[in-house]
Amino acid sequence: MLRTLTTLAFQNALALPHRRWRPRREAAREGYSILLPVPADLPLFYRLAMATLSRQTLRGANEILVLPDANIDAFRSLVAAGTPFELPLPVRCISSHPWRDALRRAVGRPHYNHFTQIVRGIDHATSQYLVLHDADLFLTEPDFLDRQHEIAAAGRLSLLGVDGAKDDWYRRNGFAHVAATWELVFRSDWARRFQPSELRSGTRSLGGRLGGHDTMLFAQCRTAPDEIEWQTVEHGFVHFNYVICTYRDFLKVRRRFEDERFIIPLLRLLIDGFDPDGPYPEIPAWSDILRCLDGGSDRILFPKPGADRGKYAELRDRLNALCRSGFVPPDRAAVMEDRLRAFDRIYAPGRFERVAAPAIEAAA
Question: What is d(CA 177, CA 161) in angstroms, rounded to the nearest whole number?
């Protein structure tokens, strides 16, 4: 009981800086704005997101709002310099106010970072609909975002998701209509019905039922079910879950980090494949990762053979899908395949064959 009260008191303190929205200067435009929360110390994901969005039709899009999780001058300069990809809409980098950035550092929680990025995006977006794009998600169908927006607008929906909330608490307590946050399409005026703090993740009571809510899910529980639709979509994208939050956890641990989802090897593969000259000193080199795999280093602890609960095969399937999508050039796909052989032999012996990546233009 004392622990719950302490948690609620801490959450109330975090709500104080987020009690009201920034006033609109003009009416929201038809169409949609793309909100892009990105880790400022991993510019790789900004580059990959821009490459992904450059392959979308974006007929109904008005703008891309880049929302870094920290105020880093080098990242702002990167965005200001533009991208090598042709995009038919403006790209704006919306940094945090210095005192809010100081609060973010003091809190030190990835979910709080994500919440502040979303609020900042809603505050500055100019469109009726907003699309919350995950930086670790690769879109493989060119009209994916336009199609989702058109469905939401035609149905006059407040929210349209590509999956339901994974926590079974919502189904058991009468909130099966709640949509997962990732790649979510939602109306700006829906979000503004609530105080910004009500979109934050945390423990809250609904009708006497206490539950832990991810970002934006508490507000969805207080929304009429007929305003929300979600349908599990299993094509049109490749999504690597838990990447940013795992990276944040990794930075906090200097040794014996338990990488149950093989996220650190994934990060190194993506860095070497798409931004090899970038500033990533915290991510071990591939040779060091192999030393951890062989037991020669305890910086990273991988699951024991047969005890990974299928997580490696899940990651490998997603990497294969990404290579087949044409996003990864054939030479880079071959390097990824060769590097992963050591993991294949331990966690999926005999299962994966070399994937031939289509020879089409991909992210530079």
Answer: 10
In the chain, the largest separation of any two C-alpha atoms, in whole Å, equals: 60
pLDDT, tens digit (0-9, with 9 covering 90-100), for 10-66: 555 565 567 689 888 889 999 999 999 999 999 999 999 999 999 999 999 999 999
Q: What is the pLDDT of residues 189-231, one digit of tens each?
A: 999 999 999 999 887 777 777 777 889 999 999 999 999 999 8
Output the pLDDT for position 99. Answer: 58
β-partners of residue 161 are 230
257 vs 260: CA distance, rounded Å: 9
Angstrom CA distances, 95 to 10, 41, 51, 127, 131, stand at: 25, 14, 21, 19, 19
The alpha helices in 95-216, defined as continuous H runs, are: 98-107, 110-124, 144-154, 168-172, 188-191
3-state secondary structure of 263: helix
Domains of the chain from N-terminus onward? 2-230 (3.90.550), 240-347 (no CATH)
Look up tokens 């809190």; give the residue: 107
pTM: 0.89
CA distance 261 to 243: 9
CA distance 89 to 139: 18
Q: How many CB atoms lie within 10 A of CB 169?
A: 16
